[in-house]
Amino acid sequence: MSNKQAGGLPQTSKLAVVIMAAGKGTRLKSRKPKVLHRVGGQPLLQHVIASASRVVDPAHIFVVIGHEAEKVRTEVAHAGTQFVEQKEQRGTGHAIQCTLSAIRGYENVLVLSGDVPLIRTDTIEQLWRFHQKEAAAMTILTAAPEDPHGYGRIVRLSPASPAVDAIVEQVELRPDQESLREINTGIYAFKIAALDAHLGELKNDNPHAELYLTDMAGILRSAGERVVAVQAEHAAEVLGANTIAELVALDATMRLSTAHRLMASGVTIYRPETCVIDPQVQIAADVIIEPFVQLLGKTRIGADSTIRSYSVVENCTLGQRVTIRQSCVLAESSVADGADIGPFARLRPGCEIGNDVHIGNFVEVKKSKLRAGVKAGHLAYLGDSEIGEKTNIGAGVITCNYDGVKKHATRIGKGAFIGSDSTLVAPVAIDDGAYIGAGSCITKDVPAGSLAVGRARQITKEGWADARRARQKAQD
Ligand code: UD1
Ligand code: CA
User: Fold this and answer.
1) What is the pLDDT of residues 235-246, one digit of tens each?
2) What's the chain's Rg over C-alpha atoms?
3) What is the pLDDT of residues 301-321, one digit of tens each?
4) Which of 14, 145, 279, 398 has a beta carbon 3.0–4.6 Å from 106's, enabling a disulfide?
């Protein structure tokens, strides 16, 4: 197996990546494993795997799993990485001990944290280049954030030198070390031979009684090995996600950067900080997105379309000049050019909405094809149906598609007129140009060009109401 040549990186033999993802994430106070919490629409771990996969082929990535191992494995298995199990979580040093036998065949290893999701490929490569240039046994990626509290701190031999003396965890800082601003990002490069020779020397003589990978800095240095640090340019990229508040902050950062990328390509997003847009969403130039819109999954939107406030669109393809008015919910459907939907409309999965279709308020459509120019302006349910060009669906029309056991189809031809408040009991077909009288319950097929009325006849009793009132008055 040879490692993938990544953008500009010299071809190097035998580089493995380990991603530590076995921890429980106690500080989240959540039953779900930390690395499966989502930011920017994806599990934390998925982001790290994606960045690492651009440095080496996923076959050379080893994900350390432990807490809820099977859940984690299942959720990210599609990425094609290897997995190593850490049955008991006895610390980051122990996590690496558990991977040693799997990575011994490699010369170097990059160690990443499953809970540092914003790490970019460029930064991983920067670490890797520095490690090789310095011919180090251990290279630590560091950062200098505004607030270093909670992180391990870097003690350099001298401020200007890349050489590191030790990493000191927050809880073990001496008072004179509290002011150290350079933090350990939890991301490292190691020469595997050096790791292999000294990893057994880790001790759990610390407040958590864990084996800290950070102690390798001091251990390797005492053994005469070269330990260096390189600082990441952007501290925001290497911040961890240890609490729900930190996760939500990372999510906001990612969402905003997606919004800015789209705006740079010609999309107008008003109040971008209120919009939730997944990274894979594609939007053409001149689309307008109003505040509080969610665009999820693999949604695509064509030019000159408008998505008005409070709408949620998931895995849909919208054409050009489409208008989605306020508070619509659309899922797994397609909408062709010029269609106008909402406010308060719902497209459930499997809808194909044709050109210039109008769907108005309180209309629910499921698994239905509405051909060009269909109008369903108000209060309707159209399920398992096919509706021909330019047919008009009156207010309150319902396709009765379910008989309590099975779903049945309704077919309506083109140019038909379905009067308000009609119920179409499927399976039923209404042919081209037919009229259905308002308030009908249609149970039989209606041929082309005909009128069907299925309702009780009206009876009018003249004077009846006046007579009743007169009787009432006489009794009082
Ligand atoms: C770690 C570093 C700290 C650094 C910080 C950066 C240690 C001792 N400390 O602290 O210096 O500033 O990261 O974010 O390493 N994990 C396992 N198995 C375990 C324990 C942890 O796989 O037994 C995994 C976790 O799932 C997590 C990663 O290792 O993805 C880091 O563990 P975490 O407990 O979050 O370490 P920090 O306290 O953040
Ligand atoms: Ca962490």
Assistant:
1) 988 988 889 999
2) 32
3) 999 999 999 999 999 999 999
4) 14
Ligand 1 residue neighbourhood (C-beta within 6 Å): 20-23, 35, 64, 66, 86, 89-92, 94-95, 113-116, 151-152, 167, 169, 183-186, 212-214, 240, 242
- What pLDDT band is residue 13 in, cutting at 50, 70 and 90? low
Q: Is the confidence at residue 429, as pLDDT, over 80?
A: yes
pLDDT in tens, 256-299: 999 999 999 999 999 999 999 999 999 999 999 999 999 999 99
Give pTM, 2 decimals.
Answer: 0.85
Is the predicted pLDDT of residue 8 greater than 90, yes or no? no
Burial (0-12, 13-18, 19+ Cβ within 10 Å), 382: buried
> 257 CA distance to ligand 1 centroid (A)?
26
Atom of ligand 1 nearest to the CA of 65: 22
Residues forming beta bridges with residue 153, ordered by sequence position: 168, 183
| Cα distance between residue 1 and residue 121, in whole Å | 21
Tell me 92's DSSP state: H
Amino acid at site 469: R
Eight-state DSSP code of residue 416:
-
Would residue 28 be called left, alpha or beta, if left means φ above 0 and alpha means ψ between -120 and 50 degrees? alpha
CA angle 138, 141, 147 (to 5 degrees): 135
At 78, the pLDDT band (50, 70, 90 cuts) reads very high
How far is the C-alpha of 60 from the C-alpha of 139, rounded, in Å?
20
Distance between CA atoms of residues 102 and 196, nearest Å:
12
Give me the count of residues in the chain. 476
Pocket test for ligand 1, best of 45, 85, 92 (most atoms within 8 A of CB): 92
Q: Whose CA is nearest to atom 19 of ligand 1?
A: 91
Closest atom, ligand 1, to C-alpha of 34: 26
- What angle, 0 to 180 degrees and rounded to 10, lies between the N-to-C axes of helices 121-133 and 44-53? 50
Which tokens hold the place of 190?
């190691």
Structure letter (DSSP) for residue 273: G
